[in-house]
């Protein structure tokens, strides 16, 4: 099956997509990961992507969809999870066209919802290890030692964009981009909204219930 999981920053998409990959063996399409992997491969497409990234310019959709189509072709016989992609209406329409040309379709678009208050609380308490990249939350998943990484004992840091002011701006951008996307998938009859308040396990049970309906039908 092909599924989309999306939602605002701080809602827990990354955690839930990892859990879905483990339980259902989804291969995950995450735009940031795919771009970094392609650059690391030093392919022709990767070299072009690197030029855009190094200059601080957004990678054009035309180039992005070369990667999308290649990824789908390579994994068409597996369960595919689109993690936070597409991000806007134009990308959603192009993805549908690409899938249609390959005689495939997106079966469910799941939006994770969390109140702005909870998102701000989560993100302002998020910390990361600059050495190994481990992520912590001082409220929900704190390190064993005060503000130090459990793995390498390095002092934890906060991302610059995890300040309340910047978080609010990111949420506003998300709402503007995503509102048409929600309407689009509603019109296709595949949209569902998931309440992401609660523990990781509670949220995963809600998502699993939806996925089980499609997996068992195949």
Summarize the structure.
The protein is an alpha/beta fold.
Descriptive notes:
The protein contains eight helices and seven strands. It is of the alpha/beta class and 218 residues long. The radius of gyration is 18 Å and the shape is globular. The longest helix has 24 residues, at 164-187. One of its GO terms (cellular component) is cytoplasm. It is found in: Cytoplasm.
List descriptors.
Rossmann fold, single chain, P-loop_NTPase, metal-binding, kinase, two-stranded antiparallel ribbon, Adenylat_kinase_CS, ATP-binding
Which fold name fills CATH's third level, the topology? Rossmann fold
N-C termini distance: 8 Å
Overall pLDDT score:
91
Q: How much strand?
A: 5-15%
Return residue spans where pLDDT drops below 50 for at least 5 consecutive residues: none
Domain Adenylate kinase active site lid: 126-161
Enzyme class: transferase
Subcellular location: Cytoplasm
Catalytic activity: AMP + ATP = 2 ADP
What layout of secondary structure does this protein have?
Layout: E1 2-6, H1 13-24, E2 27-30, H2 31-41, H3 44-54, H4 61-75, E3 80-83, H5 89-101, E4 108-113, H6 116-124, E5 126-128, E6 135-137, H7 164-187, E7 191-195, H8 200-215
């Amino acid at each position: 099956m092909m599924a989309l999981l999306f939602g605002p920053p701080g809602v827990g998409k990354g955690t839930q997509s990892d859990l879905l990959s483990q339980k259902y063996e989804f291969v995950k399409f995450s735009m940031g990961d795919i771009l970094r992997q392609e650059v690391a491969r030093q392919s022709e497409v990767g070299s072009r992507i690197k030029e855009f990234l190094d200059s601080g310019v957004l990678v054009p959709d035309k180039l992005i969809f070369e990667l999308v189509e290649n990824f789908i072709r390579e994994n068409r016989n597996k369960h595919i999870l689109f993690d936070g992609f597409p991000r806007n209406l134009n990308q959603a329409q192009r993805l549908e066209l690409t899938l249609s040309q390959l005689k495939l379709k997106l079966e469910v678009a799941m939006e994770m919802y969390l109140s702005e208050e909870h998102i701000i609380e989560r993100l302002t308490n998020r910390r990361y290890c600059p050495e190994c990249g481990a992520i912590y939350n001082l409220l929900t998943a704190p390190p064993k030692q005060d503000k130090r990484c459990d793995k390498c004992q390095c002092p934890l840091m906060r991302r610059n964009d995890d300040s309340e002011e910047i978080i609010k701006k990111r949420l506003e951008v998300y709402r503007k981009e995503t509102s048409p996307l929600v309407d689009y998938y509603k019109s296709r009859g595949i949209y569902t909204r998931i309440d992401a308040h609660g523990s990781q396990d509670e949220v995963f049970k809600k998502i699993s219930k939806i996925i089980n309906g499609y997996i068992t039908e195949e």
